[in-house]
Design a protein that fits this description.
69% of the residues lie in helices and 6% in strands. It is mainly alpha-helical.
Length: 377
């Protein structure tokens, strides 16, 4: 019985070692989908901790503080005695903001002398900072309008006219595609695209470098083609599996065509294959190649035009990011397909760009490969 168990373990280990590259390509994107989905599982950022510095000490200041506390997005952890104490809590990360009621706040409020209060927000984390600013603005603007109405009514203006006077401009906001402002919805295209990129390059490029070293540059093209096709197929399987987990477990929207998602990924993987061939030409050591691939993730995210839009970049650099790395042609239309539900017409420029990238860099890779063979010859 013990020998049978050992044989089963050896067979399982042998299977894992034999098919490790393919299992990594499939399993890691799915695993990280579960991991990041759990991290960003809460749709809203709520109960942001703040402190109150009440230098006025009146019932009016306490009423305004209570209105802020009633907001689901704000949690008042308590009062502080000084600005220095509030700053200390901000530096320790115990609060993300604060509200300061200056002396004379109530007197100015009752005499309609434009009472002032100060909202302090820690913007070292822009996600939390923006949410806290939005919550505070909502509460305080509502209070401000209410106070203005009461002031006009006190001047013997009918309530309806007072309300119309305060709300001179009325507008309705319609938040499209992601009204919940879910962080996972925003981040998942980055997570999935980078996991596809890193697992594919990590499992393909070192194998090509090893084959080059083993054959002294005379690589078996049929064998390499088999490796490439198997990894493309399994990467596609892993990506679609990850997308299914994100959709059915963490409610990530998938409004567009899955076929178009697959087409985008195939073009992306073809471009990554060309880059892998270029790496194979220039790297002579497998470990150095692996280290270089690990370093690619963050720079390529920043160059994708996803986190920082290209219209905010210098015009020459915005054009450059579409030439030096193919992630731009995958991550942006992937988000539009899933979140916005766009069709072929809206992403055809990305498809065309990916094809042009493949043709241009494919020629470069072929020339570089032939040059390296001649140099070795």
């Amino acid at each position: 019985m013990k020998d049978m168990a050992q044989r089963c373990i050896r067979k399982a280990l042998s299977f894992l070692l034999k098919y490790k590259p393919l299992l990594v390509i499939v399993a890691l994107p799915i695993f990280f989908t579960f991991l990041f989905g759990a991290v960003f599982s809460k749709v809203y950022i709520q109960a942001i901790p703040i402190a109150v510095l009440d230098q006025d000490g009146t019932a009016d200041a306490r009423v305004v503080a209570e209105q802020l506390a009633d907001s689901e997005g704000i949690r008042i952890i308590g009062n502080v005695d000084s600005i220095e104490q509030m700053e200390h809590l901000l530096l320790r990360g115990e609060i993300n903001g604060g509200v300061v009621f200056p002396p004379g706040f109530s007197q100015d409020l009752r005499s309609a002398q434009s009472p002032r209060l100060m909202v302090v927000i820690d913007f070292s984390n822009i996600v939390i900072g923006n949410h806290l600013l939005a919550y505070a603005n909502t509460v305080l603007n509502t209070l401000n309008a209410s106070l203005s109405v009461h002031t006009l009514e006190a001047g013997k203006i009918v309530p309806y006219v007072a309300e119309q006077t305060v709300t001179t401009l009325t507008f309705a906001e319609r938040m499209l595609y992601d009204p919940h402002l879910a962080y996972f919805t925003y981040m998942y295209a980055i997570i999935l695209a980078v996991m596809i990129q890193q697992t594919y390059l990590s499992m393909l490029t070192p194998a090509l470098v090893e084959e080059k070293l083993r054959t002294q540059g005379m690589m078996n093209l049929r064998k390499c083609a088999r490796w490439i096709l198997s990894r493309i197929g399994f990467s596609l399987l892993g990506a679609l599996g990850s997308l299914a987990v994100a959709h059915f477990v963490f409610h990530y929207p998938v409004h567009g065509s899955v076929f178009l998602v697959a087409l985008l990924q195939i073009l992306f993987l073809i471009n990554l294959t060309i880059i892998a061939v270029l790496m194979t030409v220039f790297f002579k050591d497998v470990s150095h190649c692996g280290q270089f691939i690990v370093m690619l993730s963050i720079p390529t995210i920043l160059l994708s035009g996803y986190i920082w839009p290209k219209f905010m970049m210098a015009s020459w650099f915005a054009g450059l990011i579409r030439v030096i790395w193919p992630l731009y042609y995958f991550i942006n239309p992937l988000k539009d397909l899933c979140v916005k539900g766009v069709g072929y017409a809206e992403i055809q420029s990305y498809l065309a760009g990916a094809c042009i990238f493949a043709c241009a860099w494919g020629i470069v890779a072929l020339v570089a490969y032939q040059w390296r063979r001649r140099v070795r010859g």
